[in-house]
Amino acid sequence: MLLEGLETLEVLAREGTMSRAASRLFITQSAVSKRIANLEHRLGKKLIEPDGRQVRLTADARALLLTVAPTLGELKGLLFDQLSTVDTTALQIAASETILTAYIGPFLQDYVRQDAHLSFASHHTPIIVERVRSGDAVVGIGAGQIKIPPGLSHRILMQEPLILVHHQPPDYRQRLACLSIDLSIPSNRHLEPLLLEAGLDPVMQMNSFFAVAHMGRLGLMPAVIPLGVADIMQIPASQRFTLPIAIERPINLLFRPSVYERPRVQRLIDCLQAHFARSQPSQLKEGI
């Protein structure tokens, strides 16, 4: 299958090893090797070569992906639009780790009684967008400001406040060094100018809000985290502080328009929206 081989090559280029590509595609390493070998045979070109424990794409493979990668995800999505779903078809939700644990986990605990064939996986927001665009996930829920590709429906589920976590009250009369999430990730970049405006200098940036929160609790330095993370980690009110200015991050719901025409998916999306409506910041702020 040509499309299957191209998808595998694209994932392998991103992941760097057969094992990581296999994990991302939910197949075995031997299946990854077989797909690449079939694609090489079909094209008559060598596409990968060993590079220590990793694999390296050949010049032909890089040129191929440069040509097909921009349209590969959309083509997969168009094929997904034509698939029929029944009550036992697995539906995948792709979500940010913090959103999955703080908000979607409690939702799924009840919802799986209605629909036992849901699956979920956590990703950074840019990967969530791509998985929804390609049809690998029926619904995506990501945090932060994102550029919505053509062909996707987008709704804001809520605006989640950010707070400061530390073992003692902050002194906002002077600039404050703080821990934050990695602000180089596109969906997080909007936070940096807001933090600087608030007099907060994100001198240490980490890849996980949970790690940021943990370091803040230990007293390493004040940590800026979403309110939902503070709730799920049960950070006491004595260690939570409002920021000098209100800073929020949007929680985004993404799906292909065609899937909303399917009653089972429509029910899932409508129930997710209702769940987040009941979890608005005005209620969450009671613990601060």
Automatic annotation (TrEMBL):
InterPro entries: LysR_HTH_N (IPR000847), LysR_subst-bd (IPR005119), WH-like_DNA-bd_sf (IPR036388), WH_DNA-bd_sf (IPR036390). It comes from the Bacteria. Keywords: DNA-binding, Transcription, Transcription regulation. One of its GO terms (molecular function) is transcription cis-regulatory region binding. Residues 1-58 form the HTH lysR-type domain. CDD domains: PBP2_LTTR_substrate (cd05466). Belongs to the LysR transcriptional regulatory family. This is LysR family transcriptional regulator.
